[in-house]
Amino acid sequence: MPESPRGALTLLRQRWGAALFERVAGADGPEKRTRIHDLPGPRWFAEDRFIRTVHADAAMFVGGLRALLLQSLHPLAMAAVAAHSGYRGDPWGRLQRTSTFLAVTTFGTASDAQAAVNAVRRVHRQVRGVARDGRTYRAGDPHLLGWVHVAEVDSFLRCHQRYGAAPLDDDGCDAYVADMARIGAALGVVDPPRDRAELTARLEDYRPELHGTPEAREAARFLLLNPPVPLVARVPYAALASAAVADLPAWARWPLRLPYLPVTEATAVRLGGHGIVSALRWVMTAPASGSQPTPSKS
């Protein structure tokens, strides 16, 4: 018998979800997901912690892209990324490693979370060099780690509050920053911020060190104009990228040569952002078929 339209749509949704999950988590994503969620043992974060709410939502796609753009404004952090990360040669591999790290530390067992942190710290010890301006850098430098951390926390939280299915209240936002401080401290960040007031103050402290470099602008062009996505995904990706740029502070735009169009961003771009995040959330929460690509059990 021919499949019903609803059944066909469900099947298509599952296939899209599986394809998206493979891109984000890698070919062994299902095995990693099973270990992360089903392995018994204590976790760093209980099921009711706000970090789980934020990191399980599709708004992380916008937040992750915003974080990369914001992080690129520190010349030493960007020099390390340009020389050592392989983001141009293996962008999907880098995304998969990052998404796995976030999933393991947020949802996995405490022992697996610590092992993931230890692995990152080993890599950081090998990443060092000289930036374009002659200054030396070390990926394990607590000050640089602090910048990467606050840029991530600010981006993930702001984009969740804008596009997340369940925005947090004031106490929830502070609790999320505190949850993320647990991971930041484990990675080597000294005294990471533990509420939004401290997060805002720390971002301001870094601002005198931030400016655009050729490497940062090249990374922005790669991420926004030449993304490694199939042609059919270019329009949805453009909506995602526009939402990420629109959520950057105005002071971060010019160094990266990004436009600032407040009226358009408050209307068309925001609507487009809500549309693409809602579509991603719909795909990510496909009915059970053995391949639904949710980062959490929700």
Automatic annotation (TrEMBL):
Concerning InterPro entries, the annotation shows: MPAB/Lcp_cat_dom
MF annotations from Gene Ontology: oxidoreductase activity
Residue ranges of every copy of the ER-bound oxygenase mpaB/mpaB'/Rubber oxygenase catalytic domain listed in the record: 53-278
Pfam families registered for this protein in UniProt: MPAB_Lcp_cat
Protein name (record): Uncharacterized protein (DUF2236 family)
